[in-house]
Design brief:
Elements lengths: L8 H7 E2 L8 H5 L9 E7 L2 E7 L8 E6 L2 E6 L21 E7 L3 E9 L2 E8 L16
Parallel strand pairs: 1-6
Antiparallel strand pairs: 2-3, 3-8, 4-5, 5-6, 7-8
Amino acid sequence: MNQLVRLDSTSLNRALLGFDKVFENFENRFGTQNTSYPPYNILKKTEDSYELQLAVSGFEPSDISVELNQSILTVKGEHKQMEPYTGEYLHRGLASRNFVRSLQLAEYMEVGVGRIKNGILFVEIKRVIPEALKPRTIQVTAE
């Protein structure tokens, strides 16, 4: 009996920020789909520098909290003042619900500054490997 098992590698890859090398070709081979709210991107800027981009349109900076606990980065969006508009919606396509989004960070990842621009929350994340763990060249001399 053959059963097709579908592994959602996109969610796993995005949830384990900093493990991107492991999943480089996996998504292309198997294909995945993620419909979680709110949508987000993870941008690899350099070998050790990343940026989390989270769609937060309709949220004020005071509605957003970013917390790092151990290696879990959690972004929460909670409207302090719900429904600032008066009247009746004829069509409501913009999401306005509160959210919590958590990401597991890889070892040696440090979270930097968060900023909001054009409805997108940008959070800087860098891999900082301790000097003692970096490769080093050992000098060889003759006696």
